[in-house]
């Protein structure tokens, strides 16, 4: 497939995790369950934050944006995988593959940016508590989210345009459940040196840069906490950061591992497992990590469902009235 027209008409085959027919219903049920939990859990976070005025703070503003990004991130990959299993088809068009790469990269980078903003928010809250409301004002928070979107869109556009310049060979089998950038790049007949350099440069710049920002924020946070005289104050400060640290560790260890290990090993199975961790498992666990030990989220959800129950009862009584 040397010409652009042949490449445009190409179809990729997503081989998934296993070609065993007996395992397909199990894989379908597992991923459908995780997808429904991800969407419902993150939607509850968004509803809790938007419906409760007590949660209209920078931390929960970033958290609701992270939940939205996680829903979109998972929705770019899992529904197509479920459709392929249900229809017993492994094919995805060239345009569909490029589109999936574009949006999955967009929301992955958006996740990275939002996690960095959340680390900065915790840094200001703990290290500069008296100036917190002045520094983290609504205008700055909105600007930070807008900049995150712009960076994500520009990066996805760059990677998609770099991929469009390549021609693909006849062997278009992807040993994966999604069209992942490094996996698709390996299938090309063209020289990928420039593409590889762009991938690694962006990974180091965005992934490594944001990770350095997060580590610096937490270095200052830990230093500030250690200077606190009250043990109760130290525990409260650490507890507000524990959830964010758990999500950051899970996301970075898997996502950075996928791209940085691609140059060392060509094990598609380990790459697929790592991809599941950051594309499916992490978005699914985020609502649990942020809500199970968070009294504010629990209280907001209780109030939300309480109001929903009262409203439903009133509507039901009005309908039954003669």
Helix % is over 70%
**How many DSSP-defined strands?**
3
The largest sheet has its strands arranged as 2-1-3
Shape assignment: globular
Find the structural class using helix and strand composition. mainly alpha
User: Overall mean pLDDT score?
Assistant: 84
Radius of gyration, taken over Cα atoms and rounded to an integer in Å: 22 Å
Q: What is the terminal separation in angstroms?
A: 73 Å
Largest sheet: 3 strands, mixed
Strand content: under 5%
Low-pLDDT residue intervals, each spanning 5 or more residues: 1-5
Order of helices and strands: HEHHHEHHHEHHHHH
The tally of helices reads: 12
Textual characterization of the structure:
By secondary structure, this protein is mostly helical. It has a 3-stranded mixed sheet with strand order 2-1-3. It has helices at residues 4-8, 24-51, 58-75, 78-87, 94-127, 132-135, 138-164, 181-185, 193-226, 231-260, 268-291, 295-320, and strands at 11-14, 91-93, 173-174. The chain is globular. Residues 1-5 have low confidence and may be disordered. The termini are far apart.
Brief account:
By secondary structure, the chain is an all-alpha fold. It is 76% helix and 3% strand. A three-stranded mixed β-sheet has the order 2-1-3.
């Amino acid at each position: 497939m040397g010409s652009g027209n042949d490449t445009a008409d190409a179809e990729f085959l997503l081989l998934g995790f296993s070609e065993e027919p007996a395992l397909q219903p199990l894989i379908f049920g597992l991923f459908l369950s995780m997808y429904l939990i991800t969407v419902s859990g993150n939607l509850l976070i968004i509803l809790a934050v938007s419906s409760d005025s007590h949660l209209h703070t920078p931390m929960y503003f970033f958290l609701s944006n992270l939940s939205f990004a996680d829903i979109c991130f998972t929705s770019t990959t899992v529904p197509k995988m479920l459709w392929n299993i249900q229809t017993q088809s492994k094919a995805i068009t060239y345009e569909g593959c490029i589109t999936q790469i574009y949006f999955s990269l967009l929301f992955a980078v958006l996740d990275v940016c939002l996690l960095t903003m959340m680390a900065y928010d915790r840094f200001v809250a703990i290290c500069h508590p008296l100036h917190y409301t002045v520094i983290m004002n609504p205008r700055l928070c909105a600007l930070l989210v807008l900049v995150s979107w712009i960076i994500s869109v520009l990066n996805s556009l760059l990677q998609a345009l770099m991929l469009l310049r390549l021609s693909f060979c006849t062997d278009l089998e992807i040993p994966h459940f999604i069209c992942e950038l490094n996996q698709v790049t390996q299938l090309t007949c063209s020289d990928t040196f420039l593409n590889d350099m762009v991938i690694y440069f962006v990974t180091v710049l965005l992934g490594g840069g944001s990770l350095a920002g997060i580590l610096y924020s937490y270095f200052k946070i830990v230093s500030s906490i250690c200077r606190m005289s009250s043990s109760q104050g130290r525990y409260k400060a650490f507890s507000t950061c524990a959830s964010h640290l758990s999500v950051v560790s899970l996301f970075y260890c898997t996502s950075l591992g996928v791209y940085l290990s691609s140059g060392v090993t060509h094990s598609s199975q380990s790459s697929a497992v790592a991809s599941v961790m950051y594309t499916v498992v992490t978005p699914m666990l985020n609502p649990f990590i942020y809500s199970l030990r968070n009294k504010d989220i629990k209280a907001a959800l209780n109030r939300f469902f309480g109001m929903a129950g009262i409203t439903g009862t009133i509507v039901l009584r009005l309908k039954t009235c003669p």
